[in-house]
């Protein structure tokens, strides 16, 4: 289970939308293998009857009244944007060329 | 003037109340200290002299009118750069957020401002709080004030170094796997990770939501309690915030300082001592446990058999949550935008890939890839699902241990501060620093680290853990340890730290 190949790392980087260079993939693959080997120790620790915990403190959904309350202005929301136009976020093209 | 920076926040608050000093005077003293030592320590990423002095002037005016916004009104503070601040950059130690000034304050920051505390600036950290040494900051490492060639711990090395270099009396940190407590241990300061949900996470840039917790970074236990009291309590803006009053942490610190622990049951966690712990660290720990016995506590050994799997579970849960959280850095709405080289009219997705490659550092990429792997189909059950089950087993271990003891104790970190660069290329060795701190995050329970002495001239930390919502207990025991040890040393441990090289300050 702990083996992680170069190709797998490249695929994961693709899923995570990170343009890793060849050199970065070469460096990451063996490091991840070492980490995964250490993590593998947990495989046999818990039997299926142990329930999973997602949060340490039990939580229920929290609701509030559906009333208008102050939020960010458009100017504030756009203040950190890399590019804006007409009070909107300006983004690169979304669709492919064809 | 410089002696103002050596005093505790509680002493400074008293000096302000007596009219012995003004907030402007002591804020200026700390800004001068920052200018003098931060070239060598690099605890700060951003210093806001003008903003701090303006807040100090307001505090002095308020006091002149006979009003006070809080017990710490006028006492300056530093804030970890992972908490959003209007008017100051929030970079999280990452290039991807270089220069970003948030449009809103984190709730804890808003509470500091409302309490009248001048904000000195933002402190350095491992990128997105991923690390145990502050070496993963995109803006260069912070240096340990005890030995500038060594790490100050991480991820909150900046906050811990700021208080231990007397460049701030108080600081805020965040703790996901030990990022408040481990830096406190290796810098000879005090750090508290409160109960999960005890302090608002609104405006804390998330690494692992189910583990992240804001907490105080200080030089004394009472100061930590005063800060905890100010920033703690329910926040409707954080849906995981606990809707219950903050325990009487200040009262508990004062009670603990009397040095009387009669009636208290202390559990030494068998799995968090012995093998893997540096001899000097173990020695200071054993001596501190003996002091608890002298103070009247009853000490028992407890076993938490699943703690040995905590590190592995943590390194699945944390990267999984981090990989989804960091998806928000997409180059579209804020932060860095980099266009790929040699691509004409690149698509949004190509820009996203290029930006995330240029903007994230090695450790962040490592954890995103690891998390993406653990969450991918076919591996989810074997990794993420299993890790969540371990989390249940660790919580059960805690529950059983707290049947036998009121608090649990261990060394905070397995070693003293190591040399900068020593573990940079060995991620697993780096991860082992959090061995003793991680279980508390997985179970959501509170913990404190207080100085326990020196091993080979470097600070050692003593950790106290308590059941969820019983934060007051860690303050009581922490304060008792502090009282007993400072009595033996003839003053705070930090008095033994070597003088820092200073830069001449022109005013």
Architecture overview:
The complex is a heterodimer of chains A (98) and B (507). Chain A is mainly alpha-helical. Chain A has a domain at 6-42: Histone, subunit A (Orthogonal Bundle), CATH 1.10.20. In chain A, 34% of the residues lie in helices and 4% in strands. The longest helix of chain A has 18 residues, at 22-39. Chain B has one domain: Amidase signature (AS) domain (Amidase signature (AS) enzymes), CATH 3.90.1300.10. In chain B, 40% of the residues lie in helices and 12% in strands. Chain B has 17 helices and eleven strands. Chains A and B meet through α1 and α2 of A and α11, α12, α13, α14 and α15 of B.
Beta-strand percent range of chain B: 5-15%
* Low-confidence blocks of residues of chain B: none
Question: Structural class of the secondary elements of chain A?
Answer: mainly alpha
Please tally the β strands of chain B and state the result: 11
The count of strands of chain A amounts to 2
Largest sheet of chain A at a glance?
Answer: 2 strands, antiparallel
- What share of the residues of chain A lie within helices? 25-40%
What keywords describe this structure?
heterodimer, A: about 100 residues, mainly alpha, Histone, subunit A, two-stranded antiparallel ribbon, 3 helices, 2 strands, flat, B: about 500 residues, alpha/beta, Amidase signature (AS) enzymes, eleven-stranded mixed sheet
